[in-house]
């Protein structure tokens, strides 16, 4: 028996405080006391000093209208206040139950000598009610009337005194199938049954703990007496299901489960500590992101406790909360758990005797208390696990289920019996801080054992692929195995999706070799799931996703049996009792938003160098298909090397192909080095290595060992020796240099996003040794003009170039590897009509790499007054050119123009265009200004 002070939602806390004050005054009146001083009044708490009406004795009183159990800490704090403030005596008036430790403290305190124990009096709900009845403030609980109504005492639960703005009432729960389903309401002043429907509805809308039950139960009970024997709720409890086959998207069968040995061991050890009383908590939480295998782990440990070692110690019952339609689902789950445990020999074996008679605190029910006592005697543990628990706060109509579960969790934590609660909680679910689930999670932080599921390591992934091989009936090709390991990135859901895709493809006749040359993209796999649907099936799928967990019968009515059956057969939806959901949370989000969880890329390229990759890429075309043999011949690379390069290009979305044939992907404008590198830069932006480096400050120094450490962290499933990790780290640094994310600095590197690909860094990476470009043969303006002309009019013969007046300029461009000569026809390394700004930038960066111009720049910086003749004389002596004086002047003047152009570009973010109208004048003025200097 307990007391509750209940108000309507939205009512201020002062109303609850006033109701508590009214109850306390009635109690004090029964003891012949009156309120003398009110010290504090806050919602569910009231601190006062009362005075006896006859002897004037003053007593300090703390009143608490808590729903949760009161701990011994509160009692000790009150005793400390009494002693510190020198009160003669103190009382605790509590409308809620005492916790296990508080009951022990109370028993110890009240057994002390009277002189000491009278310092503090503890008034529990039973004592308060007894005093109010004795003083005739309220009528005794109407047990006889209630029994006369239901005819069977086994159908009566426990009662409570409900204090509301509408008055004070006796409320008794009535059982249906062993759990509370409705209530009988009586006036506490008259003891008569309340049959007023508006009043009953009003009481049901207060925040009392029985509000999820039917307050008009008596009216319906009169119409249909068979409702009292209804046990259909037990059949609505859905246990965590497992897949029928390996390829089933439901939680894996125990024999298919791999890894998570630490998690399994932690849970089993935790259950052992419950028996040995070494643990103070009775709650554990399995946490992890979507698709980490939480449900599969639950199914595994449920199976594990059935083996010879554990079957007489532990019983685990796991339910899917997605099947919940109301608060009674929690009670039905609890009852089903205890009854099934009893039927397996746990506690006492008469399972039908177990009933939930206390709707507010089910574990305080008499039959359950007896069952828990037997568990402790026999050193047994019963565990109830709620899977998919985050579903309870995802939909408003399930909030009442959440509230019932919350009370059960808190009671379990306080009781510390041999009953354990577990739940699987999706780590990446969105919980707003004003959501009650957030506060619930925080309130249990100190009362739960957490088991966190991280991505698979290499051993776990390999074990999963080995099981996959058995299902496939053939060994996985080493390259395909490596691809599965790398692409899954340790995510169990992604590994399973990829393996099922490979399984389906191989079964349809596609060879493993063909699959090696295709990017395994989960988005495209989800698209394939959707492409096979009819319009009606697609509409039904979206409705389920939008309302998930959706009502089975509503979907059946709106979409039809055939459509729903088709989706079930295609394994895109799963049924849990009267609820239906998509087969994966991740797939559900994709159906709703067309997005998948952000998964940083961890792919490690196999190309021997960027230079070789760009050489191969240069020959790719959007329309013309090339095979590996041809690409190997024209680039002087082995077919295996070409295969590795093409695989990298496919993984980075720059190419597509199959059966040793490849095309340039349409998303890449051309096969030019800049376009290829820009595609790589776009992809590297979401590479896990880049993301980790970006967490450092810009311009932060990084070492090769830093890169190795990060690569190991982001590739937990990969297993390489130290030398291989070093090779990968060096390769990744080169790629980051070329894509503009790091810059080289002596013996280390600096993380600095340049905003675009950096040809300068790229050429350093290639260790390119360039011959002197004979820059004196043509000016910057003429050379750029020739570059742009050839790009727009390629290919051109040597004679055409000579007639156009660009022979010397093209010679410079060839020496810089910006123009190539094939079959006596000259072309640029770019696709025709590439943007002029790209040509300008590449020319400027390439010239910067020329050794002779570097000498010119140093000379000009050391000799700011140097003339063209001075520069020509310096180069003539440096390179032993044997130029005449006039040649020194002519060549020196041209080299000076190159030097001025490069020096000005290095001082500004914008490169001067020597042939544009605006920049040409600026360029001329620069020459004049330097001449004057």
UniProtKB/TrEMBL annotation:
In the record, what terms sit under GO molecular function? DNA binding; endonuclease activity
Q: Which InterPro entries match?
A: nSTAND1, P-loop_NTPase, Restrct_endonuc-II-like, Restrct_endonuc_IV_Mrr
Name all Restriction endonuclease type IV Mrr domain ranges.
Answer: 18-104
Name a single GO biological process. Answer: DNA restriction-modification system
What is the recorded name of this protein? Uncharacterized protein
Q: Per UniProt, what is one Pfam family of this protein?
A: nSTAND1
Q: Which domain of life is it from?
A: Bacteria
Every copy of the Novel STAND NTPase domain together lies at 248-492
């Amino acid at each position: 028996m307990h007391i509750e002070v209940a108000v309507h939602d939205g009512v201020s806390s002062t109303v609850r405080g006033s109701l508590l004050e009214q109850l306390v005054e009635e109690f004090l009146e029964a003891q012949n006391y009156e309120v003398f001083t009110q010290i504090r009044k806050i919602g569910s708490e009231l601190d006062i000093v009362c005075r006896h009406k006859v002897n004037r004795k003053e007593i300090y009183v703390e009143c608490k209208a808590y729903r949760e159990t009161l701990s011994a800490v509160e009692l000790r704090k009150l005793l400390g206040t009494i002693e510190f403030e020198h009160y003669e005596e103190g009382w605790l008036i509590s409308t809620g139950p005492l916790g296990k430790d508080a009951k022990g403290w109370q028993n110890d305190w009240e057994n002390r000598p009277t002189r000491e124990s009278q310092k503090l009096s503890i008034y529990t709900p039973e004592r308060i009610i007894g005093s109010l009845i004795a003083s005739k403030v309220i009528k005794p609980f109407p047990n006889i009337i209630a029994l006369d109504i239901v005819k069977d005492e086994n159908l009566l639960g426990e009662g409570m005194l409900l204090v509301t703005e509408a008055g004070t009432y006796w409320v008794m729960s009535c059982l249906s199938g062993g759990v509370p389903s409705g209530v009988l309401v009586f006036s506490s002043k008259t003891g008569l049954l309340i049959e007023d429907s508006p009043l009953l509805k009003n009481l049901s809308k207060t925040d009392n703990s029985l509000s999820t039950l039917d307050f008009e139960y008596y009216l319906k009970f009169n119409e249909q007496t068979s409702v009292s024997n209804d046990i259909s709720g037990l059949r609505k409890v859905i246990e965590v299901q497992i897949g029928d086959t390996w390829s089933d998207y439901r939680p894996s069968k125990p024999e298919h489960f791999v890894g998570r040995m630490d998690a399994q061991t932690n849970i089993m050890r935790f259950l052992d500590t419950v028996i040995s009383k070494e643990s103070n908590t009775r709650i554990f939480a399995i946490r992890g992101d979507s698709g980490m295998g939480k449900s599969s782990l639950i199914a595994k440990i449920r199976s594990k406790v059935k083996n010879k070692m554990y079957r007489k110690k532990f019983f685990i019952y796991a339910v899917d909360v997605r099947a919940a339609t109301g608060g009674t689902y929690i009670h039905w789950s609890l009852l089903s758990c205890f009854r099934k445990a009893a039927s397996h020999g746990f506690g006492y074996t008469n399972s039908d005797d177990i009933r939930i008679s206390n709707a507010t605190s089910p574990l305080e029910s008499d039959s359950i208390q007896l069952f828990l006592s037997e568990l402790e005697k026999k050193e047994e543990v019963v565990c109830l696990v709620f899977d998919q628990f985050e579903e309870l706060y995802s939909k408003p109509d399930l909030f009442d289920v959440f509230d019932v579960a919350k009370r059960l969790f808190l009671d379990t934590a306080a009781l510390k019996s041999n009953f354990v609660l577990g739940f699987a909680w999706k780590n990446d679910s969105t919980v707003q801080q004003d959501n009650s689930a957030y506060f619930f999670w925080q309130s249990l932080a100190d009362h739960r054992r957490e088991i966190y599921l991280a991505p698979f390591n290499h051993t776990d992934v390999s074990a999963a692929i080995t099981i996959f091989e058995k299902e496939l009936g053939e060994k996985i090709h080493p390259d395909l195995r490596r691809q599965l390991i790398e692409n899954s990135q340790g995510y169990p859901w992604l590994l399973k999706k990829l393996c099922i895709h490979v399984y389906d493809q191989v079964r349809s006749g596609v060879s493993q070799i063909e699959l090696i040359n295709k990017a395994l993209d989960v988005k495209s796999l989800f698209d394939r799931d959707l492409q096979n649907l009819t319009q009606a099936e697609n509409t039904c799928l979206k409705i389920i996703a939008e309302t998930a967990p959706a009502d089975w019968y509503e979907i059946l009515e709106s979409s039809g049996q055939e459509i729903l059956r088709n989706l079930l057969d295609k394994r895109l939806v799963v049924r849990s009792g009267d609820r239906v959901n998509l087969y994966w949370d991740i797939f559900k989000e994709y159906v709703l938003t067309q997005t998948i969880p952000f998964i940083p890329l961890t792919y490690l390229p196999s190309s021997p160098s960027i230079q070789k990759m760009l050489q191969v890429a240069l020959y790719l075309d959007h329309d013309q298909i090339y095979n590996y043999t041809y690409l190997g011949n024209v680039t002087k690379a082995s077919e295996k090397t070409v295969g590795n390069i093409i695989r990298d290009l496919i993984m980075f979305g720059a190419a597509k192909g199959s059966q040793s044939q490849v095309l340039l992907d349409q998303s890449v404008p051309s096969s030019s080095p800049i376009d290829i590198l820009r595609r790589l830069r776009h992809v590297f932006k979401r590479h896990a290595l880049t993301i980790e480096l970006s967490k450092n400050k810009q311009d932060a120094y990084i070492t090769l060992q830093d890169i190795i450490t990060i690569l190991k962290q982001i590739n937990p499933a990969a297993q390489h020796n130290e030398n291989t990790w070093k090779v990968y780290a060096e390769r990744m640094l080169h790629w980051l240099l070329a894509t503009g994310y790091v810059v080289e600095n002596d013996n280390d590197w600096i993380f600095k996003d340049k905003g675009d690909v950096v040809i300068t860094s790229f050429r350093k990476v290639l260790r390119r040794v360039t011959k002197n470009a004979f820059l004196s043969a043509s000016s910057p303006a003429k050379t750029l003009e020739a570059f742009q002309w050839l790009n727009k009019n390629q290919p051109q013969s040597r004679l055409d170039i000579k007639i156009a007046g660009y022979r010397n300029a093209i010679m410079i461009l060839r020496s810089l590897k910006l123009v190539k000569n094939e079959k006596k026809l000259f072309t640029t390394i770019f696709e025709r009509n590439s943007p002029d700004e790209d040509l300008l930038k590449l020319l400027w960066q390439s010239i910067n790499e020329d050794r002779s111009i570097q000498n010119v720049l140093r000379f000009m910086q050391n000799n700011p007054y140097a003339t063209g003749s001075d520069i020509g004389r310096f180069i003539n002596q440096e390179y032993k050119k044997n130029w005449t004086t006039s040649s020194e002047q002519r060549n020196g003047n041209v080299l000076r123009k190159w030097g001025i152009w490069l020096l000005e570009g290095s001082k500004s973010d914008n490169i001067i265009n020597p042939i544009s109208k605006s920049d040409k004048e600026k360029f001329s003025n620069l020459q004049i200004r330097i001449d004057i200097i």
